[in-house]
Design goal:
The protein has 442 residues and is an alpha/beta fold. It is built from 16 helices and 11 strands. The longest helix has 19 residues.
Length: 442
Amino acid sequence: MMLDQEKCKGCTNCIKHCPTEAIRVREGQARIIEQLCIDCGECIRRCPNHAKLAITDSLERLDDYKYTIALPAPSFYAQFGSGVMPHHVLGVLPELGFDAFYEVAVGAEAVSKFLRGYLAEHKGPRPMISSACPAVVRLMQVRFPGLLENIVSMETPMEVSARVAREKAMKEHGFKDEEIGIFFITPCPAKVTAIKQPFGERSYVDGAVSMSAIYGRILNRLESNGVQKVTALSPVHGVGWGKTGGENHAIKDHYLLAVDGIHNVINVLEEIERGGLSDIDYIEAQACTGGCIGGPLVPQNPFVSRVRMENLLKELSAREVQELDVPCDREFYRLKKPIVPRPTLKLSNDVNQAIQMLEEVERIYADLPGLDCGSCGSPNCKALAEDIVRGRAEPSFCVFKLREKLQQLAREIVDLSHMQPPAMGRVANGSKEDAKKDELME
């Protein structure tokens, strides 16, 4: 995530909705704490000034490689109107500079097949949680590290598709690994972070292009009717991964739950921490409301996209099912190493000092009003107390504490205004009778 300082007005809208409390407003500017940011895109949605930006790649980066492959996300198909089928959209990609494409929907279909077997055989803790949404996985790394063992050890459809496409290009065209550039057409910034900081040993994707950045160019070419005809597989269950419930629909035959929206996901994860939902086999959890069609980088309204996706799936389901040329080895789809907690901000590396600082946090927090108004530039009173202990804030940042301090100062000023230097007599400016009255009143 990146902040456009010229557009940021310090309105505090972002800090109130960040699921990991990764944003502060100081001196009229939002500041993102990278260790806590999960790139869910909530700040992009909430910022009225459009000051939050996702860092994606431009099409100029295609020039860095001899052979480039586009990976369109399933949700991309739902951005276009009725009558536009996946093969229409895919046919425009060569005009944008790509040499080839590989549908992530194919990778999603393949992952679905092996997930069914994984759920049937795996004897780990229930419920198991999807690894498909990188924002949810990073949320768990930051806020729910005790639930990481519940995440299925499966690669995402994006990574599976990229690896298949890369190996195919190397085998069929003779390109070296470093000569191939694979770019995901992404609906969200979390996928960008998953490419740059992968959960596995490496990412087979080299970059990510925002859907919004290329949508207009594709739409113009579709309307010109000069589209190249291509063959598209577009398996219906794989395409369905682009919306909430699509992943579960592709898996079938288990006790499944789908939850979307990052704050709804948090509620479900908290329930699991309390020991609930053990009767559920698998949870499809997506940070964006509506699934990937509701991502912060999609050009269309998510409710419109949902209708378009439903209509598209109806049309695709009427087609004859095609055999997919994907690896059959289960190990191909497994993560090569476990997902571990992310290091977050500690009060101190010294245990004793950390305990003392935690006690100080509790003392300061108890003295704060507890209204969580955000006027201090921290998301809530507890966060302000932690910021104060870390030396990143002052108690006076709280407008209520500042008002108390000003009232106390005003009382002191009034008291001082009635005081006289000891060298001056009480009757210097008044009569003895007035002095006696003052003594009696005191």
